[in-house]
Amino acid sequence: MSDEKKNRITVDIYGQQYTIVGEESSGHIRLVASMVDDKMREINSKNPYLDTGKLAVLTAVNAMNDYIKIKDEINQLELELKKVKD
Fold it and tell me: DSSP 3-state assignment of 13?
């Protein structure tokens, strides 16, 4: 895929600048970065002595946990919808 369709956006996450390259809109990329920053700050407020690496891993674990819960919920809803259709 060519770089012409990709957006390159610089965002701030937990005080660090990152350049994110993706096909999503710049608004979407900024939203994702903002949500990561918010989650890192939330976890840091409860665990202020974590180093940045551990904080980043806990943030990723929390994000994947949320993802799996939502994915399971979608699967359950799809099963219920299939039952209703049948």
Answer: strand
